[in-house]
Amino acid sequence: MQIKKWTIRLIATTLLIAGLLLIITLNPVLTYANKTNYNNYSIYYSKTLDPHFTLKLEQATLLLQESEFYVSGLKLDICLNDGSVYPTIVKKMLGPAFAWGFYNKVVLQGAFNCAENYAELNGYKWNLVQLLAHEMTHCLQYKKFGFWKSKPIANIPDWKWEGYAEYIARQDYNQKNLFQNIERLKNADTSKWEIIFEDGTIAPIDYYKDWILVQYCLDIKKLSYEQLIKDKTEESELRAAMMKWYSENKANAQQVALQNWGSTVVIQPIISVHLQ
Ligand SMILES: [Zn+2]
Are 249 and 172 part of one and the same domain? Predict the structure, then answer.
C-alpha cells in the first residue's frame, strides 16, 4: 500500500515538473526581463540588446527565403542567452548546442558579436547570420511537417534534417559550389570535430557532410526537399553517387576554376611588384 502511494506521488511530481517545464519552454516571457518586437520576430533578452542584432535577423531571413517552405511573416520567438534561465532549461532538455530551433523558437546559447558576425561557444565561432538561418530553417520544417512528423518524434535521418538547415544557411559565394565544398572537406583534417571556413568560423564536420549530401540531392539530382524526405535511397548509396559525380566532373571544374583565375590574374603582377 505504502509503495503504491509513493508510486502515485512520484508520477504526479514528474508530471507536474514536466508540465511546468513545457509551460516555461513555450512561454519565454516568463523567464526574460525584456522583449522587443521586430517585424514578425519577438526577441527575448535580459540585459541590453545590440541594436545591430535586428540587421542579423533580416540577413538570416533573406537566406531563409531560399527554402521551398518559406512563408513570409512567420512569427518566431528569438531567445538570447544573457542571464535568463531559459537557455539552460532548453539545454537540459535538448542537450548542448550552439543554438536550438524547434516549433516557433530560436534559442541561442553562445555569446554573440554582431559587428564581427559570430556566435562563440567553447572557443569556436559560428557565423551568426548563418546560425540564425540554420535554426529558423528548423522552425520552417516544424511549420511544414508539424510536431509529430518532425524530429525528434518522426524517424527522419539526421543528415536530411540538419543537412537541409545547413543547406539554407550556407549561401556565401564560397559555399554555393558543391565541387568546392567537397574539395574543402577533402582538404580538411577529418579527425577534428570542426571544419573551418575562410572567414574563420566553423561548422561541425558531421553537419558539413550532411549539408553537402543535401546539396548534391537538391542542386545536382534536382530533388525538392519534400521529395528528398520521401526518398528511400540509402545514404551510403547517395554518398557514393555524389563522389562519382565529383570524380567525373573534376576535370571540368578545374577548367572553370582556371578560367576564373585567368580573369583575375591581371592583379597578380601588381601585387608582386608591391611585395618586391
Ligand atoms: Zn540544427
Answer: yes
Boundaries of domain holding 139: 31-147
**Number of domains forming the structure of the chain:** 2
Q: How far is the CA of 241 from the centre of ligand 1 (A)?
A: 25
Determine, yes or no, domain membership for 274.
no
Query: If you ran DSSP here, which 8-state letter would residue 51 be given?
Result: T
90 C-alpha vs ligand 1 centroid, how far in Å? 14
Distance 158 CA to ligand 1 centre (A): 9
Which stretches of the chain drop beneath a pLDDT of 50? Answer: 263-276
Instruction: Give the whole-angstrom CA distance, residue 66 versus residue 217.
Output: 16
Separation CA 184–CA 197 (nearest Å): 9
Residue 240 neighbours by CB distance under 10 Å: 11
| Secondary structure tally for the chain: helices H, strands E | 10, 10
Report CA 51 to chain centroid distance, whole Å. Answer: 23
Q: Is there a single domain that holds both residue 203 and residue 98? A: no
135 C-alpha to center of ligand 1: Å?
A: 6
- The tens digit of pLDDT for each residue in 198-253 reads 889 999 999 999 999 999 999 999 999 999 999 999 999 999 999 999 999 887 77
CA–CA dist 30, 192 (Å, integer): 39
